[in-house]
Design a protein that fits this description.
By secondary structure, the chain is of the alpha/beta class. The protein has helices at about 15-25, 35-45, 65-75, 90-95; strands spanning about 5-10, 30-35, 50-55, 80. Strand 1 (about 5-10), helix 1 (about 15-25) and strand 2 (about 30-35) form a beta-alpha-beta unit.
Length: about 100
Amino acid sequence: MDALGRILVVDDEEPVREVLTEYFGAQGYAVEAVASGADALAAVKRGRPDLVLLDVRMPGIDGVETLRRLRGLDGGLAVIMVTANEDFGLARETLKIGA
């Protein structure tokens, strides 16, 4: 059976990656999970996912900068920003970039 689509999960917290990978995998999606923005950029270069679930707060290249760089690679890539933070200014910023 073919996967419903490819999802890239980007989060520096392993438990979050595990839960999302398990959930979407059980729903029939092919899931790749990475722990950093740099790894996300490399994964997209290897093969375009149908959707990126991207954590906002990560060490190194944070989610906002990762989003900017992903837009440079592929302006049409579907990206959903994931965060426990309730910063509405940050939400507006990510929407302007194309999340």
